[in-house]
Predict the structure.
Amino acid sequence: MRTMPILEVENIETYYGGIQALKGISLTVEPGEVVTLIGSNGAGKSTTLKTISGLVKAKQGNILFKKNDITKKPAHETSLLGMSHVPEGRRIFSRLTVKENLLMGAFSVKKKSVIDERMELVFKYFPKLKDRLEQKGGTMSGGEQQMLAIGRALMMKPDLLMLDEPSMGLAPIIVEQIFEIIKELNEEGITILLVEQNAYQALSIAHRGYVIQNGEIVLSGTGTELIENSEIRDAYLA
Ligand SMILES: Nc1ncnc2c1ncn2[C@@H]1O[C@H](COP(=O)(O)OP(=O)(O)OP(=O)(O)O)[C@@H](O)[C@H]1O
Ligand SMILES: [Mg+2]
């Protein structure tokens, strides 16, 4: 049986002023998958996520999410439809406490019982956050801030979680933990679109991957196929 993709990106082109960052990107994500986008600096990975979540607008192309045409929808609307985007560099609110940061993630939820329930779920993945509820976000370590950023995204109870370089700048042991949690989140039913420079680790947990170069997709395949591909090995796994 063919399933219906949860996300369908068709031929998107995105510009920053006169610079064309995306030159016709197409990709699909099926429900339950971990899909990764890999590519070098400036390839267009972050722009792809930003275009999907609505932080920047595509000039051409279409984006369908759970059968909704979200091509022209701004970020606050796409998030209400069930996608959460954890941007590059984490972007937590450094002057707000851990608790306040998490509450910001659930801004659209009114019921306290629902908020509490979701917070408990976040603590299940990130028990450390529970001990740090009153600590200011900006005083947490890089790894803790990344966990807070993901925790905040989970407060929306997303169907699709988009992570932009969650391992960036973190110690190897913390990177391991983050990837473990991503795998766990996926096993519990969250579909994941993961942008990573850490190509090997990303491909190891991904069902499928796409390679972006200069605003275009140049290769795609299963995680295993891409890890075993000699061009990928030379370019990204060296
Ligand atoms: N705000 C911006 N204004 C102008 N150009 C931009 C802007 N953001 C990105 N670009 C350009 O768009 C292209 C794609 O950038 P993007 O950030 O999507 O790449 P990336 O694959 O995420 O790179 P990195 O691995 O460094 O994060 C690059 O040429 C970049 O210089
Ligand atoms: Mg980027």
